[in-house]
Amino acid sequence: xxxxxxxxxxxxxxxxxxxxxxxxxxxAIVFAARRYGLAGATVLKGIMGYGSSRIVxxxxxxxxxxxxxxxxxxxxxxxxxxxxxxxxxxxxxxxKYGCLxxxxxxxxxxxxKGC
Length: 115
Fold this sequence. Notes:
CATH architecture: 2-Layer Sandwich
Number of helices: 2
């Protein structure tokens, strides 16, 4: 990722129970992002939330399966984000419940590579 290029943030809102084939959709997205050479991906675990269904999901409510909101954030060059988004969009076609994908322009303040 070049700090002087146009950079975008891809944000994906989904549930920890969403699946792609036989794996967690969040896992599939993160491993795909690494395979396609994106700068990095972070999965954030929500403690409470609701979407278009208006059903509140929380770890406070007892359920047989703990269904909680997740947010995946990926920051990289705009063209890489756009190409990656086109790759993963079909993965969402068969989801039983809703999700949301957003993209926005961001300004990099500091980008320090790790070891």
